Amino acid sequence: MEIANPIYDVVFKYLMEDNAIARLIISTIIKQNVVSLEFRPQESTLELDIGSITVYRLDFSAKIETRQGQKIVLIEIQKAKFPTDIMRFRKYLGEQYKSNENIRKVKVNRKHKGKLIIYFLGYSLDHFKAPVIRVQRDCYDDATDEKLEGEEEFIECLSHDSYIIQVPYLSDEHKTEVEKMLGIFDQSKLTSDHHILNIREAEYPIKYRPIIRRLQRAISEPGVRKKMDVEDEITNEFKKMARTIQQQKEELMESEEALEENRAALEEKDKALEQNKATLAEKEKLIRELLEQQKRA
After folding, report:
1. Which residues are CB-contacts of 9 (< 8 A; sequence separation ≥ 6)?
2. How many Å apart are CA 80 and CA 8, to the nearest integer?
3. What angle, rounded to 10 degrees, do the helices at 9-16 and 222-296 form?
4. Which residue, 45, 76, 46, is CA-closest to 59?
5. For residue 54, what is the enclosing H or E element?
6. Angle between helices 9-16 and 209-219 in degrees, nearest 10
7. Residues 57, 44: contact at Cβ < 8 Å?
8. Do residues 84 and 239 lie in contact, with contact meaning Cβ atoms separated by under 8 Å?
9. Could you give the angle at which helices 19-30 and 209-219 cross, rounded to 10 degrees?
10. Rounded CA separation 224/239 (Å)
11. d(CA 197, CA 2)
């Protein structure tokens, strides 16, 4: 079965705009039942030399079941194809945090307790090879090293748990339920058209079939197709820019090496000149001494 490749921003957003599917995906990843989910897209346009692109994160207000009962949390999802995308997101979020409008929203939404961030990375991290990484916070008494139980609103507002999904490490060897579901991102299933993945629906548990059907429908959406083409163009421009920057760095390094070699050669010449001056001074001194001896004779 052919499905739209969810590594593309437009497809990923199309997928997560379906509330039931978003609840299913998030519940599976965080291993907690999401009772209700309110989708709140946050978008911002960046103007570049190659045109304008939209940077967005997906924000959800979620009511989840925990051992302590129901809890309302903010869940933020970010997806990045390349390492530079995360820096783009961080810059964008910095601007959002400085916004007076967002400060007002934070005051209004004090009912939310805690925040989760789920990162979908289209590239590999430097050291960890696990397809799904869970990052959790714990608080400790520094004097006794005892783990502190409970929650403090001050701490909850300043820090967050997160889940990092490394798409390149997803494969058919599913170790967990989460990895089974995330098989829809497996890029080894690419067809000759990078917009399309070819998967076997029968290999997925029945409860995940709605996700697959949603991605299948995305293929027939002309708006989705067109935006995928635009995304390809922007990605190719970024790659060209990256190659140009790398080439310029290499040329600059070569120039710096050449300058360093010239500097070293000049230093050697200066040393040789100093030695010649010293030798000449010795000879002149010797000549003067010989002339003095002749005069006295």
Report:
1. 56, 79, 227, 231
2. 9
3. 140
4. 76
5. strand 51-66
6. 130
7. no
8. no
9. 130
10. 22
11. 6
Euclidean distance between CA atoms 203 and 46, whole angstroms: 40
In the block, tokens 């194809």 appear at 81
Judged on CB neighbours under 10 Å (0-12, 13-18, 19+), 55 is middle
Task: Please answer whether residues 132 and 165 qualify as being in contact, where contact means their C-beta atoms are separated by less than 8 angstroms.
Answer: yes
Q: State the DSSP code for 142.
A: T
Q: How far apart are CA 107 and CA 197, in angstroms?
A: 43
DSSP reduced 3-state for 128: coil
Kindly state the tokens that stand for 29: 């990843």
Please state the separation of Cα 135 from the chain's center in Å: 16
- Residue-wise pLDDT tens digits, 230-281: 877 777 776 677 678 778 888 888 888 888 888 888 988 989 898 888 888 8
Give me the residue label for tokens 């005051």: 107
Report the length, in residues, of the chain: 297
58: left (phi over 0), alpha (psi -120 to 50) or beta: beta
Are 225 and 219 spatial neighbours (Cβ–Cβ below 8 Å)? Answer: yes
Rg for the chain (alpha carbons), in Å? 31
Sign, CA torsion 65/16/12/192: positive
Whether 7 and 185 have beta carbons less than 8 Å apart is answered as yes
Question: What pTM does this model have?
Answer: 0.68
For 51, half-sphere exposure in the C-beta direction (CA atoms, 13 angstrom radius) is: 10
How many Å apart are CA 92 and CA 80, to the nearest integer?
Answer: 13
Coil vs helix vs strand at 11? helix
Condensed to tens digits (0 to 9), the pLDDT of residues 11-40 reads 888 898 899 999 999 999 989 888 888 877
Tokens of 13: 């957003």
Which residues, in sequence order, are bridge partners of residue 74?
61, 115
